[in-house]
Specification:
7 helices; globular; alpha+beta; Jelly Rolls; 14 strands
Length: 294
């Protein structure tokens, strides 16, 4: 699938962009199905919110159980002080996750395009297993920032094999919160891991903890997305249908969406079947729901 130049770019930069990978029809079908899932979903009183901010992370049981299900998570700015929605549900969801690639026919078909396995082989990901999926809405005006992180922090294997396949379902621009990445940043160390903390007492305490592995700071995102030269990050503005392949150690980030245009995306994370996946990873599945190949 990949040209020699694209393989070299991935090895050098830790990411590669493949324009027009998904057809407009495939993107439209996935978008429609994601909206249907949200429409049919009835939130609990807990109002699960998704955030990658280390200082405010609070992992509830719905989050920790979502590795084997399909759940909707709210944007932080969608809830008022009393926990009630400040706008319609369909405009308040941050993402749907994390197993729809195995539980839903439309997502399963999109995620198991035979070309994905070919791309995985081209970049050296052998015997890829589909581990986690997210449909990300990046809602107009309230779409939240995804802080700078490395995917291996959240989906750790020995050796590190997690690879992200990120699809633009709608155009991703500077205005609506496109991805940003640090070329070559994957050659640095893994800074931390995100672990289950099942020994918490009382049992309703935060069920996860970050464990520091390396004190090298992650790169700082640009203070102004209109001045990208002030940061080592480069913007990945792509049209709908593009796929971005992300190395598990690559620092990447996306800013908030304060525009009036959504930025729908679909992200599929895969690992090698030959790698060890520790039982302290936050995302776990029951024994009767094994990971399936691409």
């Amino acid at each position: 699938m990949l040209t020699a130049e694209q393989r070299a770019a991935y090895q050098r930069d830790g990411f590669v962009v493949l324009p027009d990978f998904a057809s407009p029809d495939a993107c439209a079908r996935l978008r429609r199905r994601a909206v249907e899932i949200v429409d049919a979903w009835e939130p609990s009183a807990l109002r699960s919110v998704f955030t990658t901010n280390e200082q405010t992370r609070s992992s509830n049981r719905e989050f920790l159980d979502s590795g084997s299900g399909t759940w909707c998570f709210f944007e932080e700015d969608a809830l008022g002080p009393d926990g009630e929605l400040t706008q319609p549900k369909e405009l308040s969801i941050n993402k749907v996750g994390h197993a729809q690639h195995d539980l839903d026919d439309e997502f399963d078909g999109f995620s198991r395009d035979p070309r994905l396995a070919e791309v995985a082989a081209d970049i050296g990901l052998h015997d890829p297993l589909a581990l986690q999926s997210m449909y990300i809405f990046k809602q107009p005006r309230i779409g939240g920032e995804v802080s700078c992180h490395q995917d291996a922090t959240f989906l750790y294997t020995t050796p590190i094999t997690v690879t992200g396949f990120w699809f633009a379902i709608e155009d991703a621009t500077l205005d609506n919160g496109c991805l940003w990445a640090v070329p070559g940043g994957h050659t640095g160390p893994l800074r931390q891991v995100f672990k289950r903390n099942d020994a918490d007492d009382p049992p309703d305490a935060d069920g996860t903890v970050f464990e520091q592995l390396d004190t090298t700071p992650l790169p700082e995102p640009p203070a102004d997305v209109r001045a990208p030269g002030t940061s080592p990050f480069v913007p990945l503005e792509v049209d709908a249908g593009a796929m971005v392949v992300l190395h598990g150690l690559l620092p990447h980030w996306s800013g908030p969406n304060r525009s009036g245009t959504s930025r729908h995306a679909y992200s599929l994370h895969c690992i090698s079947a030959a790698a060890d996946y520790p039982d302290w990873n936050w995302l776990q599945r029951p024994a009767d729901m094994p990971l399936r190949p691409l």
